[in-house]
Amino acid sequence: MAAAQKPAKRLGGMAEALAIAGDLGFPAPPAQEDQNTDKSDDLVRVLRELTVVQRNIANLQVELQGRKDDKNIAHLTHVSEMEKKCESLARITAILKDVIQNKKVLPVLLTAPYTI
Questions:
Q1: Are residues 21 and 68 in the same domain?
Q2: Residue 92: what pLDDT?
Q3: Cα→Cα distances 11→19, 20, 39, 85, Å
Q4: Please, what sign has the CA dihedral across residues 44, 45, 50, 55?
Q5: How many domains would you assign to the chain?
Q6: What confidence score (pLDDT) does residue 1 get?
Q7: Which residue segment(s) compose the domain that 32 sits in?
Q8: How far apart are CA 104 and CA 107, in angstroms?
Q9: Is residue 3 assigned to a domain?
Q10: InterPro entries annotated for this entry (predicted)?
C-alpha cells in the first residue's frame, strides 16, 4: 500500500450500503433535515385543511342555529303562521258565539241523562 492512500474504513451496516450505492452512482437519500422539512410541510398543509374544515363547521353551526331560531319565532314573523293563528281564532270565535247564543239550552243538555 502506498503511504498517500488512506486505509479503507469499515463503515458496516447501513452506512456501508449507502457508501457503496453512492460509488455506483445512485443518488444519496435526502438528509434527515429534508425529511423533517417535508414532514413539517405536510403538517402545515394538514393544519390548513383542518382550519378550513373547522371554519366550514362553524359556518354550518351558525346556519343551523339560525334555522332553529327561525323555527322558534316563526309564529311571530311569518305571514303563513299568522294566517294559521287567525284561522284558529276564527274557529274558536265561531264556537264561542254558538255557545253564547245557546247558553240557555246548554244547562238542560248537560243535566239530561245520557242514553246509549
A1: yes
A2: 97
A3: 9, 10, 29, 90
A4: positive
A5: 2
A6: 47
A7: 14-74
A8: 7
A9: no
A10: HAUS2
Determine whether 10 is exposed, middle or buried from the number of CB atoms within 10 Å of its CB (0-12, 13-18, 19+).
exposed
What letters, b where the CB count within 10 A reaches 16 and e where it falls short, cover 39-69? Answer: eeeeeeeeeeeeeeeeeeeeeeeeeeeeeee
* 63 and 112 share one domain: no
* Pair 105, 99: CB distance under 8 Å: no
31 Cβ contact partners less than 8 Å away, ≥ 6 residues apart: none
Residues 19 and 40 in one domain: yes
Q: Is the domain of 98 the same as that of 54?
A: no
85 domain-assigned: yes
Reported confidence tier of residue 56, pLDDT bands at 50, 70, 90:
very high
φ, ψ of residue 98 in degrees (nearest 5): -65, -40
Task: Let me know whether 31 and 54 are in one domain.
Answer: yes
* Phi and psi at residue 58, to the nearest 5°: -60, -40
